[in-house]
User: What shape does this take?
Amino acid sequence: MNDANNKWIGKRTIRPDGADKVTGQATFGADTTMPGMIWGKVLRSPHAHANIRSIDTSKAESLPGVKAVITSADVTNYSPEKSVILGIQDMRWMTRNVMAREKALFHGHPVAAVAATSQKIADQACKLIEVDYEVLPWVVEIDDAIKSDAPILHEFIEFEGKPSNIAGTLEHKKGDVQTGFEEADVIVERSFTTRPVHQGYIEPHACLVSVSADGRATIWSSSQGQFMVRAMTSMLTDIPQSSIRAIPAEIGGGFGGKTIVYLEPLATILSKKSGRPVKMVMSREEVMRASGPTSGSKSTVKMGIKKDGSIVAAQGTYYLQAGALPGSPIRGAVGCAFAPYDIPNVHALGYDVVSNRSKVAAYRAPGAPIGAFAVECVIDEISEAIGMDPLEVRLKNAAKEGTQAAHGPVYPRIGYYETVEAALSHPHREIPLGKFQGRGVASGFWFNAGGESSSQVNITEDGNVVVTTGHPDIGGSRASIANITAELLGIDYKRVSVLIGDTATIGYSNLTGGSRVLFASGMAVTDSTEKVIVSLKERAAKIWDIDPEAVDWEDGYARPAGANAGMFDPLSLEELAERATETGGPIGAGSQLNTAGAEGGFATHMCDVEVDIDLGIVRIIRYTSFQDVGRAVHPSYVEGQLQGGAAQGIGWALNEEYIYDSEGRVDNPGFLDYRMPVCSDLPMLDTVMIEVPNPKHPQGVRGVGEVPLVPPLAAIRNAIYDALGIRFYGLPMSPPVVLEALEQGEAAE
Amino acid sequence: MVKLHISTIINGEPEEFLCEPEETMLDVLRDRLSLTGSKEGCGSGDCGACSITVDGSLICSCLMLAAESEGKKIETIEGMSDGETLHPLQQKFLEEAALQCGICTPGMLVAAKALLDENPDPTETEVRFWLAGNLCRCTGYDKIVRAVLDTAQEIRETK
Assistant: This one.
């Protein structure tokens, strides 16, 4: 499966959904309409923190054109006392996130929603809703939230026996760090901060929901999981899952941010109340104020190294912002922080901190970039302290097959070492640098994920193939699935159509996230296709009246094998399809798997920067990613993941941040002031794909989507140090911050 | 409110519509004319997903009032291919995987076509600055810039 003789796996085929996407025909979340459709709008809290004493919707309801008004009273409640887990979410928090219940917890928190015959009337109706707020003291930053006299968001959350904004902790321990540090020749301890950053998908959240008179709901929406949409909407509306059909629209970017619902339950309740299909679309401002970014953080990392370059002890403490409700990605931060290294003594501790910000959502390797940023910066410093190249230090301490990771697993065959080796010998490393230019490196890890996936492979009557899976395609996975199916069947790629089923047409499939889609759906599709091949061989055997064991499947044909070789003319897929009725009926097979063995992904990034010392602008002039990609089933889309992750990391490192005003409101809720990288900000982003096949996957697939966001933050920071001799300990390293540091440096001289 | 009656030409076809004075060109394209290929990513002219050309000039349709299109020639993504024959840019975007999620792709293609109509031999820097008004969050722009440069070369060579 991993050789040069492959016809389709490893080939840069044209994606099955491509023509629709370059002609404007693809249907995204906001592109669906229905006869009789009306518009839903959300009324949002103008306060960062307030008790909701009462809501009077009567004036809004009597406005002509208004068809329904809802508040938290219409959304299924889950008591804060008892956890109700769905996937990685807790429905206690989800119900309070989609609609404020006891309290408004952040500026922009939904407090009511309206459906009306036009968007204009819906907006007017929102203004007529009277909410009686008791405004409360608020807190947005970690240091303020963990003070002993901080305003408490949730009285029911306790830490060390008292109401607290610390909602949880997670700890990993290996060996004994105290003993480890005693062995070290050099110990470096540093503290870091990072700001919350948004996933920045270009498509705002959008849905259309129609609930029929008998209570059956159809949801068209853009999400990372139609089954997640169905389950969460069911739990928030009390409509059974069997009565909800969630149809996945094309998704205009998610990066983790569309792994939860915001609008779907509200539109469902509005549609049920009004008897009309309801469409809801967030504005960009609503996306920025009320959908989840990833956490801001503060951390302290201490590492001890011997003069020979062996890292003997590592300790990390991380505080991550959860937003208004518990659930920051501390698992990713503390689990991934030290994961690329074989360190005998490790202690990693994470705190989940709530404050009056929008609830965080997953963002590409959730928590891992935060964990790695601090560690990879400290490794740069300990390497310098012992006078060893930072890549050589990484190579010396690289985790390998058999390494016991601090977060639990003993690694099988992994490719981290190979990424560092590749970086060490790459021509990028030899390119001379000029004045105010610098080079930095950093590494990163992501767990990757398996879990539930379903697939159906059907042979059409004319001998072509339709594959259905249950995962929204976020970056070209349909093309890879078509490559795999065509390879296994030995037929032309163009004869395979790949579709994404809705919740009524394909078996349960967990969401698109964790870099799991091609790993898990590749397994499911392989299983289904192999079953189809067995059936095809049985049918040929029946026609030839020989034993099915004596039939081979090769290049799209059934051929008699063994003693019967050459006795019959081969039967093509078309011929077998044509004779399906006489040989046993329809040809097709389905699989419902709970996949395991995803195994981790590793990368090392090398980055060159040039600093404009007059403007404080850091420009990326050269960038190379080295990643163990397992098996690049479609190399172009694997490269695309590496490039896209690097670009998001560049934004996180250099410009992106939420800025809050003095009233606890986001002050930059748009693309002008929330500055994501634009085309003229970036150079070409080079990639080196290293293929160390995952031994637990039929095609050797490892997840590739998330690792690329883990190394960039530190790689860029370390490059700026190389350029300026200034070490930064906070992100973003935006022009004003860099200018200030340059001025302080001059003053010190 | 009395609606305005607007006569315009969209993708070469005469088109008439009624709209309210404050409606944007993007709203009319999407909600009244069912031309949903133009996307709304921001509504403030920062992302370029709604890019169209008006009498040949590249604009963000979310920043234009629909009423301003009276007598003008509008080109949208829906008019870019010639039936089943894709524009060379569309074809190259597919071949070189210059899209991942595809939400920015219509605006990106409209903007890239406007560039090549004006400058058939752009440098990488010219492509990057021309497309700086079109946000893409998936690709890091690498394959987009290459696809535009490769298309420009192909068009020059076939002329």
